[in-house]
């Protein structure tokens, strides 16, 4: 029985992979997201086959799962860390200088003073935010949650 299941899964992947990718690619931001979704669709299909769940309309089932995964992807809304907001093309290196200042181990009085100024400014800016937004920022950016 396992050989028949494996053959069904392999044949389905071979037959539908390209069509599913063509369906998914225009609906997601990156080719990597499209590949991930295709893999999730076929993983779910393999689980359904192994659990002997009946699938009456295979093509419809695959595309429905793909649409659901696309929706899930947009619901997640991947958070972008604050440190990556500045683009690499920026002529202004201010953000990278601040980041390196905060991360370096330089214990000189000048570095310590500059670090304290940055943290003070950040604290002042955070105080201006509503409580919920401030907590989210602190958890995500400062605590890595």
Global Rg: 24 Å
Kindly state the percentage of residues in helix: over 70%
* Coarse structural class: mainly alpha
Strand count: 0
The span between the termini is 45 Å
3D structure, described in words:
This protein has 145 residues and is an all-alpha fold. Helix content is 72%, strand content 0%. The chain has 6 helices and no strands. The protein is elongated.
Briefly, what is this?
By secondary structure, the protein is mostly helical. The protein has helices spanning 2-24, 31-50, 58-76, 94-103, 109-128, 131-142.
Name the descriptors.
0% strand, 145 residues, mainly alpha, single chain
Please describe the topology of this protein.
Elements lengths: L1 H23 L6 H20 L7 H19 L17 H10 L5 H20 L2 H12 L3
Helix pairs in contact: 1-2, 1-3, 2-3
